[in-house]
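Sample 1 of the test manifest.
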Amino acid sequence: MPTVSMTVNGKEVSAEVETRTLLVQFLRDHIGLTGTHVGCDTSQCGACVVHVDGKALKSCTRLAVQCEGASVTTIEGLAANGALHPMQQAFHENHGLQCGFCTPGMIMSAVDMVERLGNKLDEKTIRQELEGNICRCTGYHNIVKSIAAGAEAMK
Amino acid sequence: MTEKGIGAAVLRREDRRFVTGKGQYVDDLNRAGQAHACFVRSAQAHAEIRKVDVSRAKSAPGVITVLTGEDVAADKLGSLPCGWGITNKDGTAMAEPGWPVLAQGRVRYVGEAIAMVIATTRQGARDAAELVEVDTSPLPVVVQATDAGKKGAPQLHEAAANNQCFDWEIGDRAATDAAIKASAKVVSLDIVNQRLVPNAMEPRAALAEFDTNSGLLTLHCACQAPHAMRLLLGAFVLNQAEHKFRVVAPDVGGGFGSKIPPYAEYAALCWAARRLGQPVKWTSSRSEAFLTDAHGRDHVTRAELGLDKDGRFTALRVSTVANLGAYLSAFGPLIPTYLYATLFAGQYTTPAIHAEVRAMFTNTTPVDAYRGAGRPEATYMLERLVETAARELGMDPAELRRRNFVAADAFPYQTPVALLYDSGDYAGALDKALELADVKGFAKRRAEAAKRGMARGIGYSTPIEATGAAPSAIAGQLGARAGLYESAEVRFNPTGSVTVFSGSHSHGQGHATTFAQIVASTLGVPYENVEVVEGDTARTQFGMGTYGSRSTSVGGSAIVKACDKIIAKGKKIAAHLLEASEGDIEFENGNFTVSGTDRTKNIAEIAFAAYVPHNYPLETLEPGLNEQAFFDPANFNFPYGAYICEVEVDPETGFTRIERFTAIDDVGNVINPLIVHGQVQGGVAQGIGQAMFEQGVYDESGQLLTGSLMDYCLPRADDVPSIDSGLTVTPCPFNPLGVKGCGEMGTIGSTPAVINAILDALKDYGVSDIQMPATPLRVWQAIRNGSAPQAAE
């Protein structure tokens, strides 16, 4: 089995994995970061979105060995020094989550959305950009509000 | 203190762990030495099993054991139990065929578990499962409930003649038939309430452990009702006594009913862990979830509504065939009967109602509760009929409803179908919705849309539902095999903080926040000093769990009841400390005061005295301040609302967009408006999902064609609108909080409003009916097939 090494949330990690191991399995099962979730097996739900080298990625679509040397940020790496990231804070303040299962992927997608499109995001843009993230609890109403508020707060 | 009490929009305390990735769902848990299970599932909908050859799988790397139906039989595991019995029209009991943990001799739906492979790794178990060889002989298949009773239909169970589970009725048939006959107008509809797949975002998961020294079996599983899970699995399937069986539901990622039943996989994991003396873990894939999570709905209905010449409803006659799937799921029989036909009065004074329901077994995934569970099916039928009547009579649908509403001064109101409505002002909610939705401006918006070539329509729905199950005595008479109270324990700690244990269990509803608000207000302690514990049979005394929008009205009321006992005991302690008589002690805002004086003790001081009883009436009172309560409601409660949907249909493509959605709900008193609105918004999206997007489709051979999120359309963010939601408040008189359920109204109320709006948009195209989901293809076809000249080209 090959050894794969990468930087996750600023820390060097490495593990011996089967080549078929997905990045999401590597994160959850090998280095114990269970904040990244698996909600489907067809890359639809977006619960597993992380950032790889600064870009949002569904971590079920990439093999761990493809991420050799990469820099990965997961939901656990977003808050700095105990303070919530503005997007995390916005989800809290706008009741943008209920069961919380889709939330890590939603927040990672939202941060990426702001980084690509800026701090002024209208409702239509946010809804279209969320095409790859499914929530079954909130009806998206408060997720949209959260992302708009979080985008402003990220200025 | 009160700024975080009842009525305040307190931000949820559980959020922080979820937004930082620190939630603990079952799949996040791991134990040293754990094994992993993978289930070998039937690829056929109906077949005799000739042989299950596990020899190759058993010798695969890392495989610990492979178990089959023969092992289940040898170990004498019980059948998966059904929690509700229904009595047929003729007084006999429903047919109740068994459901083995692993298939024995025959499989009856695609996805049914045949064998369980247990290996040292998840992937190893999956690989070995591929090596299990199942030799079968296919049998003919029946998928539709309406086909299952036909002559010559394939038979699923020896114990269910003609595939019928029950043939049930409610209401006065003769009076209804006569009233229909005498009606000035009768409106009828044939309705398919399509099969849905719940799709909570967290797939089901379980981790079972067995302590060979103590004999304690522990099951961590994604479920909505841990004590009920323990009761049903322990007593009926595993023969595991409750004092040696602990069920823990940690963070649960949505449920919507699908995480109530005691599933085969959970029983199998417990059994395997007990046999092996080793932890065993299993997490469903989404593909497995589509095949094995209990499905919802799947009714075929003929409904007729009679009206007199003034538009007053005279009678409602309904005949439904319900698809239960291949086996009886835990509450499968309850959904299309007492959770369905008892709602047929709706918000109206219809004097005569009769319903009959035939429930059938088919070669499909078993059907059970999905958000609303019977009440959406009832409301969809009724609200479609009402709007169809308005259209045929040329009446304003709001006015037709108003003419038939139960009046605000008529409560409590006894319906012809068993229920006693608690309180309401139905016209008040409708008025508020009409205003918020700017219905006055609709004609202008419609004309403006027409200029753009778009067909704009408006649709209404005035739903009611019964929540807060249930008065146990009534439920028992109707077939419930369990009580339906809720329990709570309120424990003061010596230095004044409070730990609350509830038998409810949050799977997204925010109980940790809401229940703490209730305790803060009731006991006058700071919100921050209250901790809420749920989801563990070893910590909470007992519980019936969370479903049917019952947690606040039943579980919250149990907490209030326990708080009342705390206050009663506190008064005795305060009387002693303040050297007054107990009758002179008043309690308010956390202070015990001698009436008419400024002599007072704070509840934290009372708690301290109770735990450090140096100056305490020990001869008459036990130390400690810890009270338990069970609350069994005297009645259901009846939240209601008024929903208005506005759509635009592109007649060229059939593409439909919801432009406005207004939801006015009355859920009685509100504990946390933030959470109530959130529940409504999420519920509305699920109801829109049924109206426009979702459908579980089987082909004739019983294969689920919509078996993944690529095939089954869950609403995405740009499929649904922002919701304009509002509240009216008529408190429920049957619980101390005055609350009604809020978890399902959105789903129940929205579906008919959407379809009514689409049909309003299409009325000029000669379209009077459409089946769900109203996809662009269906809408386009309806326009093409409509009677309007412009559609006939």
